[in-house]
Design brief:
single chain; mainly alpha
Amino acid sequence: MYSFSLAVQIGIVFAGIFLWIGMLTGVWKYYQIRYSAAARAHYYVDIAHRSSLLYAPASLILAVLAYFSVWSNFTNILCVVLNIIFFSFSIGAYIVHGVLKDTTNQFKTPHRLGKSNVPTWMMTIAMVTLIVIEVGATWVLLLGTIIGFGWMN
């Protein structure tokens, strides 16, 4: 039995989940390519596939940073979980756009979601929050690791 902190365990498990989602969306992408006259998958099916595969190693990196971080378990868990929430949100949004085939650019106005429009202010708040949380939480873990390595002395 391995003994890792909860932050590390969450990072590792979600790396596996994101890898698995990447594989599943890869099957979906292949299916669309196979049966498309243009031999292409929908833009957001492709993005969902690629982003899932990229968030898998990113989650492992977060786990490693949490492992070496000098911060409290609570701080490390918070930083890992906040990143994973936003990774999941992003992948989910890409999958929804892939299913609905409603846009090839979620940032183009009007912001389409199915047959509805999402207000620009909502998109702005979502993206600014995502940027601040992901960059900030990763910086906290990175700083905790750098301090742990003794590079700040």
